[in-house]
Amino acid sequence: MATLIGFQSFVNICVVTGLMPNTGLPLPFVSYGLTSLVTVYFGIGIVLNVGIQSKIIMGGFFK
Questions:
Q1: Is residue 43 in a domain?
Q2: Is residue 63 situated within a structural domain?
């Protein structure tokens, strides 16, 4: 998930600075398209849930 967000950010920075042509890749967390925005939020939710579940299983989250 971090790779996807990092790649989208990199391409957008290159487009803004004029190093690449405009590709239509949405900006992470600030997209106009609902599909991209929901996909990124869904992926971040899964990553956060896995992190919390592993801490609960190891017994270190609520101690």
A1: yes
A2: no
Number of domains in the chain: 1
Per-residue H/E/C for the chain:
CHHHHHHHHHHHHHHHHCCCCCCCCCCCCCCCCHHHHHHHHHHHHHHHHHHHHHHHHHCCCCC
Structure tokens at 51: 């992190």
Contact 4, 44 (CB under 8 A): no
Residues making up the chain, counted from first to last: 63
Residue type, 62: F
Per-10-residue mean pLDDT for the chain, 63 residues long? 80 86 72 75 86 72 55
- Give the domain range for residue 49: 2-58
**Which pTM value belongs to this model?**
0.54
